């Protein structure tokens, strides 16, 4: 009863809170319906091996193909979902769709990995690895072995022990783990030791900045060095120019991703891109060999 009174008072003093809550619920409902209506699609952005200049994988990036508003990027709907179970539902769809696509590409003779972004809420479900196993069961070991999950570093740091366990469980299944937006979360070296992620993915802001800002360059260099010391792989994202490419090659980065190589593209364009991709001739000049 006291609660009820409190609620009513809320109504009187600040109806806008209630309205906002209502608007949010209605948006969530729309997103749930859109998911069932098949309005979400995955775009893929290629990842290229720095040394060989060869495409080795792609990151799956979700888009909402809205019937009226057109193609919406994740920043327009993921934040709304982050604290709702709908993010788990969407996340499971993403894993399923990316694995189905990967199966198709492997069957067509393309040798590549696919990485998928995982939200913290999804990772912290207690039956996460069990669900993952169920979702992947139909696709075969080669798909599982070429799947990578990206977890943002800041989310991983919220509960290091739980995430460390989830990472190990995924690895036991043959699934690789990358720490996304690495460098923004201030991982201590002890955290890095405990989070046995296979790959550190350097946050794009440091990569953008490294040509002009010595601090950003130091971070990029530092993360590449850390990855080498801890025997992890390292990916740089936000590679926008050939100067970024050369700098990263010089620094000994493993893999690159960014507009200088390719923008995220619909699945049907990937085979065309993969067949056509040859590294810039300048690549050879910088000491890399042509793709085999
Ligand atoms: P992210 O995982 O760090 O993905 C990289 C983002 O940078 C992508 O934006 C990509 O399009 C963009 N990008 C790639 N190369 C460049 C470049 O050279 N320059 C610039 N300026 N940008 C570049 P997008 O697709 O808008 O995704 C944004 C974020 O949304 C992702 O960041 C990821 O955190 C999240 N996200 C995307 N798909 C999913 C998903 O399926 N599930 C979840 N939970 N989150 C997702
Ligand atoms: Mg990512
Ligand atoms: Mg990132
Ligand atoms: Mg990001």
From TrEMBL:
Domain EAL: 24-278
Keyword set includes Repeat: no
Assigned keywords, A-Z: Membrane, Transmembrane, Transmembrane helix
Domain of life where this protein originates: Bacteria
One of the record's GO molecular function terms: catalytic activity
Record's keyword annotation contains Transcription regulation: no
Name listed for the protein in its UniProt record: EAL domain-containing protein
Organism: Methylogaea oryzae
Lineage: Bacteria, Pseudomonadati, Pseudomonadota, Gammaproteobacteria, Methylococcales
Section covered of the full-length record: 410 to 701 of 829
């Amino acid at each position: 009863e006291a609660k009820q009174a409190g609620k009513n008072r809320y109504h009187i003093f600040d109806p806008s809170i209630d309205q906002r809550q209502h608007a949010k619920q209605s948006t969530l409902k729309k997103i749930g319906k859109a998911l069932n209506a098949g309005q979400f699609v995955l775009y893929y952005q290629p990842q290229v091996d720095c040394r060989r200049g060869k495409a080795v994988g792609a990151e799956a990036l979700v888009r909402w193909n809205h019937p009226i508003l057109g193609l919406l990027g994740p920043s327009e709907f993921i934040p709304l979902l982050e604290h709702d179970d709908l993010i788990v539902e969407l996340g499971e769809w993403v894993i399923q769709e990316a694995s189905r696509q990967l199966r198709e590409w492997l069957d067509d003779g393309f040798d590549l990995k696919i990485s998928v972004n995982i939200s913290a809420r999804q990772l912290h479900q207690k039956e996460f690895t069990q669900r993952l196993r169920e979702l992947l069961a139909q696709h075969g070991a080669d798909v599982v072995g070429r799947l990578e999950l990206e977890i943002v570093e800041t989310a991983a740091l919220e509960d290091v022990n739980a995430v460390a366990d989830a990472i190990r469980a995924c690895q036991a299944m043959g699934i690789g783990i990358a720490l996304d937006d690495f460098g923004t979360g201030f991982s201590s070296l002890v955290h890095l030791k405990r989070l046995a992620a296979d790959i550190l993915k350097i946050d794009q802001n440091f990569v953008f900045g490294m040509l002009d800002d010595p601090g950003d360059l130091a971070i990029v260099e530092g993360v590449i060095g850390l990855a080498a010391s801890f025997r992890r792989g390292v990916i740089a994202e936000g590679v926008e120019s050939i100067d970024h490419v050369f700098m990263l090659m010089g620094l000994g980065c493993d893999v690159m991703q960014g507009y200088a190589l390719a923008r995220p593209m619909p699945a049907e364009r990937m085979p065309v891109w993969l067949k056509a991709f040859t590294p810039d001739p300048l690549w050879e000049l910088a000491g890399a060999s042509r793709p085999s």
